[in-house]
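Make up an example, fold above all:
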Amino acid sequence: MHYSLALTAIKADSESHLWYKLHVLLYDLRHFERSNISLSRLGLIIDPSYLGAPYFSQNEAEKLKRARIDADHTLSAVIEETLNERLNRRMKKRVESGDYRVCAAHDIAPILERALSIKPKDLERDQAFVDMMLEHGLTLKPGVKWTGLDKQRKTFVNKNGKKKGRK
C-alpha cells in the first residue's frame, strides 16, 4: 500500500500522538469484551466512523478522516465504502433475523487495520505498547515517546492477561 503524505504525517506526528491513539482505538475494539477500560472508552464514541471523541479531538478526527490511504481514497471514504458493502451483504443474509447492526470488533477494527497496515497480532504481542497504554491511557505525558509497534517482540499477552513466548 502506498501512503500519501497525509498518512505519513499522521505516523510521524509526535505532538498529538495520533498514531498511538489509533493503536489504542484498535486495541480497545479488539479487547472490549475483557477490558472495562476499553469498553468505557468505546461507550463514549458517537461518530459512526469511530474517529472521534474520546480518542481524538474534532481537529484530529478531521485530519484522520481526510488522510489519503491511496491515490483515490481518504480514510473516511474507505470506512464508509467498506461498511456499506458489509451492510449490503448483511441485508441479504439477515433478512430473517432482522439484525443489521455493525459490530465494532468484526467490522470497524479490520477496516482500520487494513487501511492503516496494522497487523492485529503485532498489536497483541507488543507488551511495551500494552503497558504504555495501561499506564497512560489515551494521553501520553510530555516527554513520553512511542516509536510504534515492535514487530520483532517474542512475547505477547494471551486472553487471560498472561505473558506467553512465541516459539
